[in-house]
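PROTEIN ENTRY
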Amino acid sequence: MASSQVTSSQSPMPPRPNLAFRRLRGQRSPAEFAAAVRRAAREIGERVSCDARYVGRVEAGEIRCPNYAYERVFLHMFPGRTLTDLGFAPRATVRGRRARDASETRGAYEPYDTQDTQDPDETYDNYEESDVLRRAFMTGGGATVAAASLGPFGLAADATAAAGRPVRRAGASEAGALEEAVRRIRLLDDRHGADGLYRRAAAPLRAAYALLDAGATRQTTADRLHSGAGELAISVGWLAHDSGRFDDARSHYAEALATARVTGDEALEAHAFCNTAFLARDAGRPREAVRAAQAAQRVARSLGSARLMSLLSLREAGGWAGLADRTGCEQALARAQAYFERGVGDSDPEWMSFYGEAELEGLEAQCWSTLGDWRRAARHARRAADLQDPHFTRNIALYTAELADDLARGGRPDEGAAAGLRVLELLGEVQSSRIQTMLAGTARVLLPHRRAAGVSAFLERHASTPRTA
């Protein structure tokens, strides 16, 4: 895995706040202004994923020039003004700087640039025609069938031998090995994060679908193989999702949805829709997130798991937050809490081992952060980090990174920097592009406060920390 070493001597000049844009927002909250931006976009046929966080980045000077879709929307909102009037830098100067930087550094990145290729500030995909949801209704599996190695996770298949002769029909031992592969991937992700696992997990997934293609000796075994292959597709999709490979994640989640529909597996279908909703939220498609979460709840009601319904309600709440619908978000959060208070049950899916009070608090923190309520978000993020089982190292790092960002954006830079340093301590054990991207955003917010107690130490440590390519 390639990595780059970034030193504090490469730090860019701190961004200058965009005071002109802040004046135009007036008395509206960031979330209210973001909703106005999305309404204006719809008036001219654009789709932009504007939320309170984006507005905050613009006002902080982190976004020097908007993309073309946002430019059209802003000029529609403020007729007669130019981008310069709105406080932005000319596009040519911004692009020229980036082009020079790219040629001079030969692919290196600035210390406080994010490395996520999925730009959350680009326009929405057409979520009404989303291929993720459309593929869920396919009636045939579309996975490439190959006999590949599951060796790293305990299930081996000889690809060369398989190419020369028919693959024998799978039995209970193969089904058991597949289920164990899913458990091991989840365990490794909980401890170490997704970045180092995704490439290794692709081969087990191909082998799983090869087993399905070969058939099974008994129907009960076939059912286990379909369920196991679908769960493995979701696990591999999550590794792609958490490491910033959103297109790969969409494909894997859609494959799991198709497998669930083919076999009538409602538990698998609910799980796939759950992750589809999570991905849609992260990819800037909040309306799709709401629809996928609601679809998951319709399927899951018959499964009898209150904890599953709680998590799915939180997925819906995240979508409503992305739409700046505070009422819808609060109603979904209330349902999530009510379901959670019913406690655990025998019907709770095995994959939900991560979902406890800490995750509940962490997901609620994300909702309030999206709505721009930094104080409330920080309170829930702190509780999430404090409550998390030490076994889930990745989640401790994630919740603490959320806390650092909420504190920084909420006007408490010293506390934000201290939380950020705690996350950096964990990055030796955890490899997650999601967490690295969050820290990069926090570092940008803290740059204007670099003289505050503890902030310079965080910025220097962050700038010198190698990041995965």
In short: The chain has 21 helices and two strands. The first strand starts at residue 3 and ends at 4. Strands lie at 3-4, 467-468. The radius of gyration is 23 Å.
